[in-house]
């Protein structure tokens, strides 16, 4: 009985899914790229195994920029570091697992200034088994998105990428839930965000704050500390948007007015914005 074998460039065994080490050895022997064609060839070979490499797009960005027509080819130190990191990532690539349909899926999302990334996995026996790493660089327009929009973009990217795995199953999403809560609550959301929200409503999603209660506690204590040192007028609003806490000293009338006023503000850490009569958010 066959216990393991190479299938479509991957080694399949009872341990899980691995890279074909023979192909990796060939890539490790490639010389330093000297032309755009060399870069394209290397990225093509390495990209075949990108599901095993966390933040592949982020690591490879210095190399992918050399593929742009208007860019002069200059394989500098940053490019050499990127090339080396990708080769190291191939050598140390983990063994990923096939999905287990009896367990919920978990997705970890993140967004940087120029890339979004996601990890699909399942927690079995208190251990997270990685199924797939995915990432992509953002275009010029997406790079200009607000932090909240980038967080949601990362989630949408993950659900589109992993749809064939997760459709019909429960999905636990680890991300900044405060950002999601704000987007879903807005009634005047941009058409782009509405399309994203409609896409996500197709799935059975549970959102978990990846920052954890400790981080929220720290931020909450920082805001409370301000109360002892000439509390700024906006601290109560920021505290409410971060933790959902309303000042305990407020009576029923003040609470009602506070909730009414808070609807006009938007917190995108570390900035607070207020919506004006023209429905445009400006720095508060």
TrEMBL record:
One of its GO terms (molecular function) is endonuclease activity. It holds the Pfam family RT_RNaseH. It comes from the Eukaryota. Keywords: Endonuclease, Hydrolase, Nuclease, Nucleotidyltransferase, RNA-directed DNA polymerase, Transferase. The keyword Nucleotidyltransferase applies. Gene3D superfamilies: 3.30.70.270. Residues 102-203 form the Reverse transcriptase RNase H-like domain. SUPFAM superfamilies: DNA/RNA polymerases. PANTHER family: ENZYMATIC POLYPROTEIN-RELATED, RNA-DIRECTED DNA POLYMERASE. This is Reverse transcriptase RNase H-like domain-containing protein.
